[in-house]
From TrEMBL:
GO terms for biological process: galactose catabolic process via UDP-galactose, Leloir pathway. Residues 7-255 form the NAD-dependent epimerase/dehydratase domain. CDD domains: UDP_G4E_1_SDR_e. Pathway: Carbohydrate metabolism; galactose metabolism. Homodimer. GO terms for molecular function: UDP-glucose 4-epimerase activity. It catalyses: UDP-alpha-D-glucose = UDP-alpha-D-galactose. This is UDP-glucose 4-epimerase.
């Protein structure tokens, strides 16, 4: 049955997108990846065909969707570095909002009714309480978060005026790598803490920087909810099936419901790798909230999501083994 279902995946050569493409392929879906390879990698697309093109190329985008006739779109392509978004807001609004608008227009023009959007916990800004649920106020504090919130608003309004339906998945901190060592984080300039930590443990970086040690948390460093990339990929498949079965538009948090501080992640990485690497404490980065932890019971209760890898040491271990493979 799944082989007849066509899924169009933007950014499918990137970190999260490639894991989802792999899972789609393993479960028998037909997949077409659309990626400009600015950060993605051709060899990361393990199933289906890859179209190398940009979402700003409206003609190629519309023609591709017209010819492929997907049953659903999964949209991963985006700029994702929060500090960079503070310094280069125009880049983030153009890539994250304008290019998504191009994609939605193409879907509407060619009758694609099911849309899955990669959003982010950044839409919450500094939440009033944690864990934060989907009904919490949207109050982003950086252009990255604003660009994601703008897309969510657009999707909501489009769905109000057509038979277009969407699910927005608000990611918390995605980490780890495919357990079979076939996929992982490949960005050389990756800023995610666990990736940076394992790179430092392997000697790829001279030291790890802790950005800010004056936050109102127990050990004065930021707290984040880390979710393994394979559990996140599984959530996408559940959401896809939900929409294809006629589910209504909705929003779900993707996290484990508990967090770890920067210091706790650093110490866990040292324990997993057996390397006591150098750590330097420095000032805060722009746009970092003190704590972001998901209330994710909605995804579990509504769609039966059952995370399998809620273990910080396992997350770090898979990231480390992948990074070691790249040596």
């Amino acid at each position: 049955m799944n082989s007849k279902i066509k899924v169009f995946v933007t950014g499918g050569a990137g970190y999260i997108g490639s894991h989802v493409v792999k899972m789609l392929g393993e479960r028998g879906y037909s997949v077409l990846t659309y990626d400009n390879l600015s950060f993605g990698h051709r060899e990361a697309v393990l199933y289906g065909k890859l179209i190398v093109a940009d979402l700003s190329d409206r003609q190629t985008l519309k023609q591709t969707i017209k010819e492929y006739k997907p049953d659903a779109v999964m949209h991963f392509a985006a700029s994702i570095v929060v500090p960079e978004s503070v310094k280069e807001p125009v880049k983030y609004y153009r890539n994250n909002f304008c290019n998504t608008l191009n994609l939605v227009e193409a879907c509407l023009e060619h009758g694609v009714k099911n849309f899955i959007f990669s959003s982010a916990a950044a839409v919450y800004g500094i939440p009033e309480k944690c864990p934060v649920n989907e009904d919490a106020p949207i109050n982003p504090i950086n252009p990255y978060g604003h660009s994601k919130a703008m897309v969510e608003r657009m999707l909501h309004e489009v769905a109000q005026t057509s038979d277009f339906r969407y699910v927005s998945l608000r990611y918390f901190n995605v980490a780890g790598a495919d357990g079979s060592d076939r996929l992982g984080q490949r960005r050389k300039d990756a800023t995610h803490l666990i990736t940076v930590a394992v790179k430092t443990a392997l000697g790829k970086r001279p030291y790890l920087e802790i950005y800010g040690t004056d936050y109102p948390t127990e050990d004065s460093t930021c707290i984040r909810d880390y979710i393994h990339v394979d559990d996140l990929a599984d959530a996408h498949i559940l959401v896809l099936d939900y929409l294809l079965q006629g589910g209504k538009s909705d929003i779900f948090n993707c996290g484990y419901g508990h967090g770890y501080s920067v210091r706790e992640v650093v110490e866990a990485t040292k324990k997993v790798t057996g390397v006591d690497f150098k750590v330097i404490e420095t000032g805060r980065r722009d746009g970092d909230p003190p704590e972001l932890v998901a209330e994710s019971t909605k995804l579990k209760n509504s769609l039966g999501w059952q995370p399998r890898y809620d273990d910080l040491h396992y997350i770090i271990k898979t990231a480390y083994e992948w990074e070691r493979k790249l040596l």
